[in-house]
Specification:
Strand content of chain B: 15-25%
Largest sheet of chain B: 7 strands, mixed
Shape of chain B: globular
Order of helices and strands of chain A: EEEEEHEEEEEEHEHEHEEHEHEHEHEH
Number of strands of chain A: 19
CATH superfamily of the largest domain in chain A: Ribonuclease Z/Hydroxyacylglutathione hydrolase-like
Helix content of chain A: 25-40%
Strand content of chain A: 15-25%
Distance between the termini of chain B: 54 Å
CATH topology of the largest domain in chain B: D-amino Acid Aminotransferase, Chain A, domain 1
Number of domains of chain B: 3
Largest sheet of chain A: 7 strands, mixed
Structural class of chain B: alpha+beta
CATH class of the largest domain in chain B: Alpha Beta
Number of helices of chain B: 20
CATH topology of the largest domain in chain A: Metallo-beta-lactamase, Chain A
Number of helices of chain A: 9
Oligomer: heterodimer
Largest interface: A-B, 18 and 28 residues
Radius of gyration of chain B: 26 Å
């Protein structure tokens, strides 16, 4: 068997024939970025290549000075000895699978992906390849997620009931991707929509890329939080604001969290929230299996998540599957984002107090 | 069925008592008598006899989900609840089902009793395909008898009282004992006529509140009736219409398990209900609780066991006399009645030296203490006397319902404690299903750690998460759900009693172990030794 086109080094996924890294976790010369979540797009590299729509997100993550090049979906470029092209991954705005071809051998690095519809980004397009590198965040068959419109209807119903009872609907969702997907999916005629600063900043980036989002109002110091219940407002905020001073000031409220983990009762109850909506930007089990099958890959390398069961399952199917140790830590990706946002929110809170 | 599942979801979502109560009231208002009867049955924790072997359900789920058994196991390990794991893995709903709760119970659950494995499998499969994920979960839980919901019997009682405008105490009384969930039963439950207490029905137990402050805060000691707090099984003896019934606080009819008490109680006058504690008792002394435990598990008691572990009823209250409910009389009056019934012809404040109706019916002695200091000194003898401390009951207190703050107090002795090392961990259940929350602790014996106790409560959520993290990072070996953990964490374990136990490797069993605190300040070398515990056994464990 030929040597893998992409292997793990101490800095990230490395393609030797193209001399570049994909989503490196330490500074490198040339970085190709699948999407803008913090554990995939890290600071310090000399140059970056990402999808056009990921540029705004990366700019906010990496700073003004980072050297950012962009590329559109399905446009091959030659880097050293390999052909590289980006393809929709359906994860968040600008998220890409990266296809690498060298002497007829094709490897696809999928980054993170999902198969459910998402009004804020194009649907995943599985790419035929020999080797497929997949995530496994929800790599157990207990994780099956409803279609987007089903969850949207549940959120609308919950919001409507709260509005009727004069309660604020506090919806916690990761500020990059999930928040915008929810905003674009809910029925904005139910009431006014407010957002936390972390969410609002990314809303601007999404709108800048031409993604339609309903009107949102940033919860600034001038907003009288205690009257939002009467107005039947929906407030979208990052998960780390749950139980913070910031969210307690809304008065009578019902709170909810949108995440794939909400599929399991224990996870729902541990968060002690009124509701859990089963919505994820990661592939569920059927999504993983269908996507892997559609690539036709004979070799599958599994990264962050429930790696061992997925590897074993694929091996049982006769696929050459192996675990790949990366620094993307699946479950923790979202946690890390929370920490980053938490620091941001803490600064913010300080600003308010002064 | 749909309404019942919605009720479950509403209760499950919230931690607020008033929202739970609201959901219950809403349900009972719209449900038929027949559905309400079943709802009360399930909500108060009553179970259908196990209808289907769990293994059959597991096999069927594996085949319907089209996955390998190892993958099922992997999922179960992550979810921590079998009924939920199956619900999550089974195929989505394919058609609608429109049955009310009664129809559902009759057509989907009770019929399973008479079915062959094949017919059971067919019915299960067909039913699963008609249910959404929440309904599947409830269905699975009802089949396996694992249905639990976050409401107390008291809350259900309150909701029923609200719906019917009947006094909550009457509802509580009617809910006790044996009943079949029929529409007639439900109608009677909420009937306005209240002179109906069935012959065997016990009263709801009145419970004491733990005393946390200094006893002086209770005021004048002379206002209290003081007794030892016996460590046995709280029970009520009922004698009505010539029949005797013994009910445990868990609302189990346990008459047959204590034939000596049953015989003794047959001498009580008709229309008597006596409250007290069942104790293992020999040669004028109480035996350790572990001995009593050998009696609890047996439905029928052999001669040898009867001779080795004779039991008595230590009476401390009377709540019905001559067929009249006297719960509203004062403690002082009831004590007087208790003595007059159990020691007829005599009326003495200290009856323990007198004869009662039978040696198997004793009256709990009153302790005489002139001051709180004096009582505190007496209480120090508790461990030696194998009691848990003292009970303080206001002379003017009525016999209430449930646990109320104010009239009855239990002043327990401080627990024993040891410092032990975490050696095994297992995932919890329910809310904590995906965290390692069930621990086994060990103490030192000649340089090795011997397991001494299991405990799973007493930590804050944050501490649980940090211990969970430690367990995941320091797993040495996995045996099924159990992880062997590299010794590194010391916990202070509190417990109520200590006994010799040949069944345990350490030779010692402790009672009611729980985590008092996490001792991050203690290196594992400084945990206690088995020799130290054997010393404790000498002092307290006879």
């Amino acid at each position: 068997m030929a040597e893998d086109l992409v292997r793990v080094s101490d800095r990230g996924l490395y393609c030797q024939h193209g001399d570049f890294y994909i989503d490196p976790w330490r500074p490198v010369n040339r970085a190709l970025i699948t999407h803008g979540h913090s554990d995939h797009a890290r600071m310090g590299s000399t140059s970056y290549l990402c999808h056009i729509d990921a540029k705004g997100i990366l700019r906010s993550r990496l700073g003004e000075d980072a050297l950012l090049e962009t590329i559109d979906y399905g446009t091959p470029v030659k880097i050293k000895d390999v052909y590289v092209s980006f393809h929709p991954a359906g994860h968040i705005l600008g998220s890409s699978q990266i296809r690498i071809e060298y002497r007829g051998q094709i490897c696809v690095v999928s980054g993170d992906y999902k198969t459910q519809a998402d009004p804020t980004c194009p649907a995943i397009e599985p790419v035929r390849c020999h080797t497929f590198i997949t995530e496994s965040t929800f790599g157990l068959p207990i994780y099956r997620f409803p279609e987007n419109h089903v969850i949207a209807a549940e959120v609308n119903e919950w919001w409507q009931a709260n509005a009727a009872a004069g309660k604020v609907s506090l919806l916690y969702a990761y500020s990059l991707g999930k928040a915008q997907r929810l905003l674009a999916s809910v029925d904005a005629s139910i009431g006014p929509i407010y957002t936390h600063g972390a969410v609002e900043a990314l809303n601007a980036v999404y709108r800048g890329c031409g993604v339609y989002l309903p009107e949102t109002i940033y919860v600034s110091n001038d907003v009288k939080k205690e009257v939002l219940g009467k107005a039947g407002a929906l407030v979208v905020a990052p998960p780390n604001t749950q139980d913070s001073l910031w969210s307690r000031k809304f008065g009578k409220s019902s709170d909810a969290f949108a995440s794939g983990w909400m599929r399991v009762r224990g996870a729902r109850r541990r968060r002690s929230l009124d509701r859990g909506f089963v919505m994820s930007d990661h592939a569920d089990w059927p999504g993983l299996i269908a996507t892997i099958a559609a690539t036709g890959a004979e070799r599958v390398l599994v990264t962050h998540g429930y790696t061992p069961p997925l590897v074993r399952y694929l091996s049982d199917l006769g696929i050459d599957a192996q675990a790949l140790e990366t620094a993307y830590t699946g479950e923790e990706e979202e946690r890390k984002e929370q920490i980053a946002e938490h620091e941001h929110a803490a600064d913010h809170e300080h600003g308010e107090e002064q | 069925m749909k309404a019942f599942v919605e009720l479950y979801k509403e209760i499950d979502r919230t931690t607020k008592t008033n929202e739970k109560l609201e959901a219950l009231v809403k349900y009972f208002k719209q449900a038929s008598d027949s559905d309400s009867a079943w709802a009360v049955f399930f909500l108060t924790g009553r179970k259908l006899r196990r209808l289907v072997p769990t293994e059959l359900m597991r096999q069927l789920t594996i085949s319907l989900a089209g996955i390998a058994p190892w993958l099922f196991q992997e999922c179960y390990d992550n979810v921590g609840d079998l009924g939920e794991t199956m619900a999550l893995l089974l195929p989505d709903k394919q058609s609608e089902m429109d049955l009310n709760l009664t129809e559902f119970v009759e057509q989907k659950l009770l019929v399973l009793r008479n079915f062959s494995d094949l017919a059971t499998a067919q019915l299960l499969e067909a039913t699963w395909l008609e249910l959404d994920i929440d309904q599947k979960f409830i269905f699975n839980k009802l089949i396996t008898g694992g249905f639990r919901v976050g409401v107390s019997q008291q809350m259900v009682t309150k909701a029923l009282a609200t719906v019917s405008n009947i006094d909550a105490n009457v509802v509580a009384h009617r809910l006790m004992g044996h009943w079949e969930p029929t529409p007639q039963w439900y109608a009677n439950l909420l009937a306005l006529e209240t002179e109906d207490a069935a012959v065997s029905t016990p009263y709801p137990f009145y419970l004491a509140y733990p005393l946390q402050d200094e006893p002086e805060t209770l005021g004048d000691i002379n206002e209290f009736q003081i007794e030892w707090k016996w460590d046995g099984i709280r029970a009520q003896i009922i004698k009505r219409d010539g029949q005797v019934f013994i009910w445990s606080r868990g609302e189990e009819l346990i008459s047959e398990r204590f034939p000596e008490i049953l015989t003794a109680a047959s001498r009580l006058p008709n229309g008597s209900v006596i409250d007290g504690e069942i104790l293992a008792w020999k040669e004028g002394d109480v035996l350790p609780f572990a001995m009593l435990q050998t009696r609890i598990g047996r439905k029928s008691v052999g001669k040898k066991l009867l001779a080795d572990v004779p039991c008595i009823f230590m009476a401390f209250d009377i709540i019905e006399i001559g067929g009249v409910d006297i719960r509203q009389s004062t403690m002082k009056e009831r004590r007087h009645h208790l003595l007059s019934v159990l020691t007829p012809g005599q009326c003495d404040e200290a009856p323990s030296c007198r004869d009662t109706l039978s040696e198997h019916l004793r009256v709990s002695a009153q302790l005489m203490a002139g001051s709180w200091e004096e009582l505190a000194t007496m209480r120090l003898d508790s461990r030696k006397l194998k009691v848990e401390g003292v009970m303080l009951k206001k002379h003017d207190s009525i016999y209430g319902v449930g646990r109320r703050r104010g009239d009855w107090w239990k002043w327990k002795i401080n627990p024993l404690s040891m410092d032990a090392v975490l050696v095994y961990a297992q995932r919890g259940h329910g809310r904590r299903a995906s965290l390692y929350t069930d621990y086994t602790f060990a103490v030192w014996q000649e340089g090795k750690l011997v397991p001494i106790a299991k405990a799973y409560s007493g930590l804050t959520d944050e501490e649980i998460r940090s211990v969970d993290d430690y367990v995941r990072k320091n797993t040495v070996e996995k045996f099924g759900p159990v992880r062997t953990v590299k010794p590194g964490l010391v916990f202070e374990i509190a417990f109520e009693g200590i006994q010799k136990s040949p069944r345990h490797k350490s030779g010692i069993a402790v009672r009611f172990p729980r985590i008092a605190r996490l001792r991050l300040d203690k290196p594992i070398e400084e945990a206690d030794t088995l020799v130290q515990l054997q010393g404790m056994l000498e002092v307290y464990g006879k």
